[in-house]
Structure formats: structure tokens, C-alpha cells
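Incident review: delayed structure delivery

Summary: a single-chain prediction request sat in the queue longer than the usual turnaround. Root cause was a stuck worker, restarted by the on-call engineer. No data loss occurred. The affected request and its eventual output are reproduced below so the record is complete for anyone auditing the incident later.

Affected input:
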Amino acid sequence: MADAERDPRPDPIEYDGPPDYRVVGRHGVYPETSHDEIARFNFLAQMNRHLSTKVMPGVAEAFDARIEPARKKAKKGAYKTRHEVRKDLVQDPMFQWWSAMRRATMETRQQAGRWVTIRQADALNGKVRTLTEGDPRLVLNADFKQPRSTDAIDHHCMPGSYHTELVPGDVTGPANYDAGIFATTGGMLGRYNDGGGVAVAQWVQKNLPDFQPKRILDLGAGLGHNVLPIAAAFPDAEVIAVDAGAPMLRYGLARAKTMGIENVTFIQGDVSDLKDMFEDESFDWVQSTMFLHETSYKTMPMIFAETQRLLKPGGIVLHVEQPQYSDDMPLFEQAMRDWDAFYNNEPFWTKMHEVDLDAWMETAGFDRETLIHGGVAAVVDPEVFPEAAEDTEQEDYGRKAAWHVIGARKEG
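Output delivered after worker restart:
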């Protein structure tokens, strides 16, 4: 072909990064974002993808090629625990670089989200107040005392965690969480960040086709990302979402109303002790989704006991979490998954993932024969998130949108 006939444009490069922030689902109280704010979120999503797909594999290579051989050369014997692995990992420059960058993206993501929401705090708070004031589906307790597990920690570097109010009626915290989670996950939870809840609802419909719950309780519901898909899948059910954070609940009801979900009541409470709120055997389904790692080792057995008390005979409880540290999981993977406990303000993560949840379920009163085990992966919008829909994402040790399910069906 003559030079004059050649196409001057370069060959197209296939794009395999996260989707553009502009595709996020914008419900009626979603924060407005400027061009530069969108660019920040897109940069952070790209950086997180780069760290998980390009840099993190380098940590694994360093472990195989340098760290573990050095231990053998020193005649220290094989690794016996993830803690021994971590002790050597933190001395290696590859892990240090990856870890520092990952922590930096978490802090920057929070800064970016707060820039978005605090500048429009009055407008956001006003919208939510208009939508929720006087609505019986929002039940807050002015005398509520925060559990120590939420009051003492800025979970995943989020200033003020889930409960802090900068002004009365504040919702900038949940708005920040809602607007910025895209950057952390790279869009792997779908347009409305509800891919986990959609997956749970579909799992129940597929595996328990005759199950038609009339009353559903969601524990640690936050702003409702995961409970709204369940409520939509079971529109005839009364759904109750409990959380310790009043801002989350305010924002959650307003968000639900603008999305057309009308069968959810948002109630402030301590999920480890709901005796003053709900009677024995009053729910058909009790659910938690990525919540257990946010609570303390001391509190978890209390939560399991509460679920057993609250369930009607024949009802189900399901807990969705990142996988437990089993003997089948390599110690390197366990050590990498522990990163959140040490560097992302998730202090209960490591202890929670090493316990025998089956044994705890039995201690709570469930029979081993009734225990439920499974797995779910986020269900997202394939036309917008094709890579997520195909589940081709590199494992990111705590970030990948795929979880284990443990639960039980109460006999009776």
C-alpha cells in the first residue's frame, strides 16, 4: 500500500481497565461530582487495578524467588504460620512498596470522597432530611451508645467510621462511602455497588426455590447497598436493616426511596443485643454481608446467638464474608489477606478469619446437619462491567468481589 493510502492512526489498544466513573448509578441523593473529582476517582480506580494486577504479582514472585529461599538458606525451617510469613514479608522492598502504595490509595480515596461530600454537605443533608423526616421507616435512638468496635476505629481509613456526625442530621459520611467505593473496587460491585446483595438474593432463589420469607433482618446494613437487592427480590417481605450508624440509616432510607424500594425499615441498634427490639423467633431470614470482620472477637458469638434466637423454625441465617484461613489456604495468601488488619484499620479481620465458624454456629444452637456453605460472586451490569461479569479479575486478597457463605437453617 502506498504511504498516502495508509491509515495514519495507530492500531487501537484494547482497554482492560476499570470502567469510567461516569457510568455509576446516580440515585436521588447521590453526591454531585465535578470533572476534576471524577478524574480523581478514575485515577484511584486505575491505581488500585494496577496495584492488584501488576504490582501484587511481583510480591508473590519476590516471596518465591527471594524471601522463602533466604529462609531456607538460613536453615530456619518451613513456615508454620502466616505470622512467620508476614515477619519476613515486611522486610522485603517489594512488599513495602506495594503496601505503601495501597495504603496511600486508601487514604487518598477518603480524601477525594470527603472533598466531594463536605463541599455540598448542606444540600445533601437537606435532601435527605426532606425525604426522611417523619417517615416511620427510619427509627433512630438519640440515647444510643456506640459499641466499642465502631466507636474506637476509623474503619478502612474512613474518618469518623460509620457513625460520626459533623452537624446534626449529617450524611456526608455515608455519601462519601457511597461515592468512593467505586474507586476502591474498580467498579467490580456494579453501577449501584450492590453486586453482593444481588448475588445473595440470586443464591437464595436458586438454592432455596421454595423459600418465601415474610420478614427479613439485615445485620450491619450500613447505607443499604446489599439489603436493597434482597428487598427488591422479595417485594412482599418486610425487610428491616439494623446498623449502629445513624448517618448511614438516614442516607440509606433516602437512597432506597429514590430508587423505588419501599419495603425496608432502617433501625439504629446494636446487632449483638436486639432483645429489646425484636421478639424470639420473629424473622424468617437473618442476613449479614461483609459485616462480621467489622466487629470484635468478643461480639461475634453474641451475634450468632442472637440470630439463633431471632429465627423462626425453618428460617435461615446467612453470613457472607471473605474466605476463612483454612489449612488449604497457602500461608502466603493468608499473610497477604491480613494486610487489612495491619494497614487498613480492620483490627478484627485477622482474628475473625481464623476462627472455626461452624463450631461457633453449633455453640449458638444450630445443628451441624443444618449448616449451609456456599459461595457467591458479585452480580453486575455486563454491558457496563464486562470484565467483572466474566469474573476475570486478578485476586486482590480481600478486594475481589467474591465471597464465602456460611449459615444454617433452624430446625422445627
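Verification: The domain at 192-409 is CATH 3.40.50.150 (Rossmann fold).
Action items: add queue-age alerting; document worker restart procedure.
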